[in-house]
Specification:
Elements: H1 3-14, H2 16-25, H3 36-41, H4 46-56, H5 72-75
Helix pairs in contact: 1-2, 1-4
InterPro entries: DUF3046
Pfam families: DUF3046
Protein name: DUF3046 domain-containing protein
Length: 77
């Protein structure tokens, strides 16, 4: 998962404003008691940060995998 995919996944699941707030402010134990933003900046792969965020926010497993990819129809342009 690339950072852009992480950002799309967060926005898709939580919305732009709330998702951004979660990424910046929610401290997650599984990320070393850091926010997702801090963890990614420190080198944690975006996929690991995404999965930890999902776990912390009780996102159903079915919505955790394969998200964040650009719509193939939009890429063809």
């Amino acid at each position: 998962m690339r950072l852009s995919e992480f950002n799309r996944a967060v926005e898709g699941e939580f919305g732009a404003a709330y998702g951004g707030q979660l990424v910046r402010e929610l401290v997650i134990l599984e990320l070393g008691s850091r926010t997702a933003e801090q963890a990614i900046t420190a080198g944690v792969p975006p996929r690991d940060a995404w999965l930890a965020l999902c776990e912390a926010m009780d996102v159903p497993v079915a919505r955790r995998h394969g998200v964040g990819l650009a719509d193939p129809k939009k890429r063809q342009g």
